[in-house]
Amino acid sequence: MTTHVLLVEDHAFTRDGLRAAINLELDLHVTAEARSGEEALDVLARTQASPQPVQVAVLDIGLPGMDGIQTAAEIGRRYPQVRMVMLTAHDLRDEVLAALASGAHAYCLKSADPDLLLLGIRAAASGSAYLDPQIAHHVLGSIRTPHATSPLTPRETEVLRLIADGQGNRDIAANLGISVSTVKLHVQEILVKLHAADRTQAAVQALRQGLL
């Protein structure tokens, strides 16, 4: 059985190399490509009703415009059946934790052996999780150490978590048993405390900072 892969990478040379490595495998095939997060969402909108829907999306974390973390969160919200592999050139703790919080199922380094990326894709496709051995220590460290102190109240954190899930003010109000006006007040406080311009930016910043 072939796993159909969406490759999301803005650098043509890197994308060509990744495509070649993946397509050499009998059980994997790149059936769609995108150069940005926005384009990836357009591609998924077209392909998911086709006879060969994308099963795994391989995302560069440093995409232009909508970055890989935000793209993963949006794919997870719109296409929960699509598994995600995050690919990065950096071994940075905040990026690792933010990527996992955004819904990525595997995290691989571009500098690693290509076989590890293939392992990550197969693990994600099978419903498992995978972390490159070089970055697993970040996750273990986050378990041993407490999260950063949040500027948000517990109720504001609840509201922000529902925002990150893609819910509007009315849905949030119904879920929490509060008025829409109260939700709007909480949202305004969240934006101020996180220095965010809008709801999406607030959710992304919270994911990056490990507040959700």
Automatic annotation (TrEMBL):
Signal peptide: none annotated. PROSITE patterns: HTH_LUXR_2, RESPONSE_REGULATORY. Residues 4-125 form the Response regulatory domain. The modification 4-aspartylphosphate is found at D60. Gene3D superfamilies: 3.40.50.2300. SMART domains: HTH_LUXR (SM00421), REC (SM00448). The keyword Glycosyltransferase does not apply. It comes from the Bacteria. Residues 145-210 form the HTH luxR-type domain. Keywords: DNA-binding, Phosphoprotein. It holds the Pfam family Response_reg. The keyword Plastid does not apply. InterPro entries: CheY-like_superfamily, NreC/VraR/RcsB-like_REC, Sig_transdc_resp-reg_C-effctor, Sig_transdc_resp-reg_receiver, Tscrpt_reg_LuxR_C, WalR-like. GO terms for molecular function: DNA binding. GO terms for biological process: phosphorelay signal transduction system; regulation of DNA-templated transcription. This is Response regulator. It comes from Deinococcus xianganensis. The lineage of its organism: Bacteria, Thermotogati, Deinococcota, Deinococci, Deinococcales.
